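Run: sequence + magnesium ion -> complex structure.
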Amino acid sequence: MKSLLGGKGANLAEMTNVGLPVPPGFTITTEACNDYYNAGKTFTESMEQQTLAALKELEESVGKQLGDIENPLLVSVRSGSVFSMPGMMDTVLNLGLNDETVKGLAIKTNNARFAYDSYRRFIQMYSGVVMGVDHYHFEHVIDAIKEARGVTQDTLLSAEDWQQVIEKFKVIVTKQAGEEFPQEPFEQLKKAILAVFKSWNNQRAIIYRKIHRIPDHLGTAVNIQSMVFGNMGDNCGTGVAFTRNPSTGENLLYGEYLINAQGEDVVAGIRTPQPIATLKQVMPDIYEEFQNICNRLESHYKDMQDIEFTIENGKLYILQTRNGKRTAHAAVKIAYDYVIEGILSKEEALLRIDPSQLDQILHRRIDPNAKQNVIAKGLPASPGAASGKAIFDSDVAEKLANDGQKVILVRPETTPDDIHGMLAAQGILTSRGGMTSHAAVVARGMGKPAICGCEEVKIDLQTKQFTAQGLVINEGDIISIDGGTGKVILGEVKLIDPELSNEFQEVLVWADEIREIGVRTNADTPEDALKAREFGAEGIGLCRTEHMFMAADRIPIVQEMILAETDQERIDALNKLMPMQQGDFEGLFREMEGLPVTIRLLDPPLHEFLPNIEDLLVDITKLKLDPDADKVLLREKESLLRKVRGLAEFNPMLGHRGCRLGVVYPEIYEMQAKAIFMAAANLAKAGIKVIPEVMIPLVGHVNELALMRKLVVDTAKDVLEEAGIEIEYTIGTMIEVPRAAITADEIAKEADFFSFGTNDLTQTTFGFSRDDAEGKFLHYYVDNKVLPENPFAVLDNDGVGKLVEMAVELGRKAKPGLKTGICGEHGGEKHSIEFCYQAGLDYVSCSPFRVPIARLAGAHATI
Ligand code: ADP
Ligand code: MG
Ligand code: MG
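>> structure
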């Protein structure tokens, strides 16, 4: 009943049902949360009645009453949405305490220190969550009294100390909130419930939902649960554990706990917690019981669990369980192990791995041979490596990142208010907190490298610097972090490509067994082709030949070709380019032996290869002002400027590019076709199997394709006849303007294959210029839900997708068996891959590093 009770509530109920030690309580549903919002943010009469009734039942079952001066019931008020949003919403503990009940609690438990510690915690949390009083207002009070008493740990303060603290806290609350701390327990409860409802729409929860694509309308449930206490003394404690290692996937209990502590102490990073393994020595019976419960929960949910527990006077309570968040690395390992352990089928296991999360393991890491100036070591909280400027403030980090700079966010610890800074940073470094601290959990979720609890690093937020091993690192200095080892490194270090673990390779083989849609790669160089092939690409779906024109030694020849005054001059320049292109293609064909290689003929507007007008104007002006200037050079530059101006376009994206170049300057495409077939012939003669597929870009009318097809066929014929060899090849087109999709039946008559260039097709269908849209208004559109997604990242199924479906259908009607694929960036995105599969495409093509993602997403689509 997750959608009604929220994840936390549903699991608490389920654990209670199977007889686990869960403190009793009740859950206010997500429906109530939505009613609250629909009723104009009011706690309705019927909600109040139902809450009172449930409370009464709870009071009866535990034999205590809310507000009873002798034996008070204390409860926690906990948020819990359908999808877990750790730390994003607010929780209040120890509710029900006031100036009177605290005395009763002290007497009843014979533990005044504990009672007053709980009361001050309650005041702190409640006034933070419900009354909006910031945490830091209270901190100095505790620091001051600890200093006065000469102690460093909160746990060493006495009941009297806490009483003093409480008096000061109450004064702070009245001052900051403008009203006194409420003493009436049911009023406390009602307001806390409302605060949880409201927290659904606090800034950090909204941002979290946006990042994780959680719908806003779900609402949160509220769990009211009787308290158990980890802060009553040394046979008490609280902790968090994962049933398997969330970083590596290793099948070993993994977690942390603190003795004599409550609630958030473990994750807040106030005291550094102990690793769970040590609990085995400290409380052997509890450890064993906990291990058993972990095993039960794991086999019940058939997934790795993230479990919160508290020990009260030697008795263990379970306060929460949920499917644990994990790194991609761990996700793969756990899915693999579950199949080997016979717990899940291959299909089930594959579905446990989120293709988009795989990006993480396909990220780069530090070259083991690189020189590393290690200045500190912390906990390896989230794997991956990154370099960037050390920045101590989330707002600054966000600003610099928006300016295109790489930053590492360095904080003593992070809180949910740092989300935007973490999002903007390449990686996160904290000096406090453990493997389950906020920074660690959030970084793992975001797939960013993080090092936590790096106590060697002494951060001074005032001066914006940190010291480590006597070195001072100032704001803006470059540091590198390796979240896999916990090393903090001075300066930038060399990163290398990832390798796939054996488990990962095996999992991908399972995916291939199930997957029906093909996976190719977009690659322009033999190195990329090789990488992609290692990652499992089944061919090249798009080779962009213009990238070969951009090389430094070629640009002058390309410019010669473009600026040629006569046909002959142009042909001379092309003849110089030809052998170079041929070499490129030989390299690609060789790496892709036996697999299809789709080569797209020249696509961008020609002026992209020429110097820009502003630069030329500056040069010319300088030459004119200089009396000794070389007059010949000046005239050359002026003539170049005229040429460049002549080629300039108002809308280059819709200008003279793609097949329109081939139609007007057939010699360009002819040279490219010649290079392709000479390369193919050379390799075929050497016994290497080549499968060339020539692709004509930006076709809108069948006549364009017919002309270009004839050109390629004639060229191929000449080359192959001369070489005395036969090679099978195909000629196809990109579908990237709406007219091509609409007239796909006509176009199919001249095409052996269609490849949907969904980047351009999205631009031309929406009429958006991508470069302008993403910078100017698309963010606004997505943030304000004008569009559900950025259509350049996730294929717009209803519009662009409709054109794709239509083109496939029309094309196949005219030419049964017409091969179809997609080569836009969408080819590596899981939702788009699912769509491509549904639309009946034969393959997707994506960048080499996304090939494993596409293999898995392709299997998901079939399952
Ligand atoms: P979050 O969703 O942010 O994890 P929780 O509602 O789980 O918030 O509460 C945070 C912590 O508060 C828990 O991990 C637990 O330690 C403590 N807590 C919550 N309810 C209780 C309770 N009934 N008794 C004791 N501790 C509790
Ligand atoms: Mg929790
Ligand atoms: Mg295009």
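>> summary
The longest helix spans residues 567-591. The mean pLDDT is 92.
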